From TrEMBL:
PANTHER family: 23S RRNA METHYLTRANSFERASE (PTHR30544), RADICAL SAM CORE DOMAIN-CONTAINING PROTEIN (PTHR30544:SF5). GO terms for biological process: rRNA base methylation; tRNA methylation. InterPro entries: Aldolase_TIM (IPR013785), Methyltransferase_A (IPR040072), RlmN_N (IPR048641), RNA_MTrfase_RlmN (IPR027492), rRNA_lsu_MTrfase_RlmN/Cfr (IPR004383), rSAM (IPR007197), rSAM_sf (IPR058240). The active site is at E96, C404. Residues 102-399 form the Radical SAM core domain. Its cofactor is [4Fe-4S] cluster. [4Fe-4S] cluster binds at C116, C120, C123. Its EC number is 2.1.1.192. This is Probable dual-specificity RNA methyltransferase RlmN.
Amino acid sequence: MDIPGNVVELKSLTEETMERHILSLGGKKFSHKQILKWIYHRDSRDIDSWTDISRALRQKIMETSTILTLKPEKVTVSSTGTRKYKFRLHDGNCIESVLIPDGKRLTACLSTQVGCRMACGFCATGKAGLLRNLSAAEIIEQLMAMTRHVIENPPEPETFAIAQSMGRGARYLDSDHTDSAIAKDSFIDDDIDGSVDISESNENGANEPADETEPGYERKISHIVIMGMGEPFDNADSLGDAIAMMKSIFGLQYASRRITVSTCGHVRGMDRFAGRGIDLLLAVSVGSPFDDERASIMPVGRKWSISELLDAIRRFPHPPREKVTFEYTLIKDFNDSPDHARALGKMARSVKGKINLIRMNPHPGSSHLPPSEERIEAFQSILLQMRIVTTLRKSLGQDIAAACGMLGLEDVLNFRDGKKTNG
């Protein structure tokens, strides 16, 4: 069902725009903060139940506004515990998101567009082109919808870590699936590596593990990566609004170092986003450290050179002491030589970056293949000898087309064959 053009989607508003909207409806100066807490802290979509808001204002909000709710049309679970969520939007388009349990982390991978116009040669999503941008509400609601699903369908304990609660409080579900925030300043201890340890203190003040089996105990998503369908900075305004509310104390209260945005190097969008002063972790897909090769597999390289990309990285607002990550998809006989490794290392060193190597994930319609394990190890060894922090990404969710560069694959194939996806 289409959303009427004159209706305001509340999850697409930031603190500032929410304040203006509520004041225009006759609300008080502080009313927007109460409303944001209902939407994000309590995940309430029943406007009439907001009892600390006057009845008259609630009525005006119901007449002029809506609150987006997404429900998974399909959830596919990998052998590794990775989950791929398919959401159908109000206009019939579909997007996919991924939930990744790994060690002490439970990470949500979110999409920002239906399709993608970047057409990177190693990515399936871009083969259908860009259908449309997502709204801020559609971006942030992916995260909230997956959180609800995790609450009702928690992963097996051995495949994920108990993730952080919103802000500094524990959250429990009542029997009717409405929730309430219970403030406990010492309830969450952040580890140095960004993982979390949820514990409770006994009467002697010592920390004991929280009881994971108690009714309503909530396991939450600890980290966010914006590297699903689409180029995030090609939708910089909606991305900025969504992340502003992910970080806001009246929103989902995620710290900057728990949010990573991945880009193919959309310099104009990076600068537009950077102008808002929202700091977060940045990951940049490279393709090749040589301009001509990069342009041949990543059309964005024809518009902005590697030198221009590096300058944009230097302008980007990073959290203190955090490094940009260069994501490098290794493709057999294309970008996997020792010369490529050395040039990539110099590129990373110029901005004090680190490198995440990714095996090419083969998919229908692409002739690219991953190098042998021996060649990958040799490539990584050169970078490590250059004293560049270099990791090799685990390929999680490949068996359900949820790995890097594979999202939207089913819809891409249907698009290519001229069919309509019916779920």
